[in-house]
Amino acid sequence: MATDKEKMLAQKLYMAGVGELATDNKKSRMLTRLFNNTTAEQWEYRTELLQQLLESAGKNVFIEPPFRCDYGCHITIGNNFYANYDCIIIDVAKVKIGNNVFFGPRVGVYTAGHPIDPDVRNTLLEFGKEITIGNDVWIGANAVINPGVTIGNNVIIGSGSVVTKDIPDNVIAVGNPCKVLRAITAEDKQYWEQQKAEYEADIEH
Fold first, then answer.
1. Is the full-model pTM beyond 0.90?
2. Of 117, 86, 176, whose CA–CA distance to 157 is shortest?
């Protein structure tokens, strides 16, 4: 017979707060409390705590306190990740975040779902659906990423967006529900490379 943790990670109905899930959640609460009480000068200690909390984390992973998650051990993060204040990741299913991903303040990543039928829902059974975020993604402030969503590579999600469906590569997407606004083009690259060149020229002078 499968445990509730096994059922949860299989994205099936499960009961939270029992057995190994209770132990994992307790550990997460302890580590996030310690992390959120650190100061900016405690960079190495913050990194150590994140390594204990997360399933895996690449190089240059920086999260501004306060940060909240259910378990942490179901979150994988690539290299060069930044999350601004008040990030919440509800990781009752796997959350996979690629390289070079930026979160604005108060971004929420929520894998958790609850049954539509109230009688089943009131038994406290719930489920989770995995979320995947690709490489080179910028998610604006107060965006909500809902269960089961995949966000492609080289994507910008506008602030305040509610992402309910998959977002393809190389686009800007905004709104509630979040929809593709336009493609990211070669003209965008040319414009921003010119802006960067002007910035660097100012420094040289």
1. yes
2. 176
The per-residue pLDDT string of the chain (205 residues; one tens digit each, 9 = 90 and over) reads: 899 999 999 999 999 999 999 999 999 999 999 999 999 999 999 999 999 999 999 999 999 999 999 999 999 999 999 999 999 999 999 999 999 999 999 999 999 999 999 999 999 999 999 999 999 999 999 999 999 999 999 999 999 999 999 999 999 999 999 999 999 999 999 999 999 999 988 877 6
Number of domains in the chain: 1
Q: Which of 106, 114, 129, 179 is catalytic?
A: 114
Which is nearest to 113 in space by CA: 143, 90, 88, 87? 90
| Domain of residue 140, CATH code | 2.160.10.10
Domain holding 105, by residue range, is 4-204
- Tell me whether residue 114 is one of the annotated catalytic residues: yes
Under 8 Å between Cβ of 135 and 78: yes
| C-alpha closest to that of 104 among 145, 150, 48, 134 | 145
